[in-house]
Amino acid sequence: MAKSDRYQNRIELLQGTLDFLVLQTLQWGRQHGYGISQVIRINSGDVLHVDTGSLYPALHRLERRGWIAAEWRLSENNQRVRTYGLTAAGKKQLVHERSRWRQLTQAVAGVMNPDATESGV
To answer: Per the structure, how many domains does the chain have?
Structure first.
């Protein structure tokens, strides 16, 4: 796929969605930034690509809110990497974000297929 095609087919994330995806990814354990972006890419079927210009500001924002904590660790190849993990407040926020996500997806589904929501399908 040509680079221009990739950008043309790019799906922009709604504001707040990246934060939710990062929290969701970290529920499975500590991860460094590159690992977070790879988990999101792989688990989305290669549809969502999070570049560093978006990821690291999100990580810093989540850290300022107290939802994740960062620490330096040694990687498998003995390099220092900054890893991120959920805090107790982050776990609570993830539960809240999942609820909001369900509401959003139901609302969008209602707009996309209003007859189905009226008939309870």
So the answer is: 1
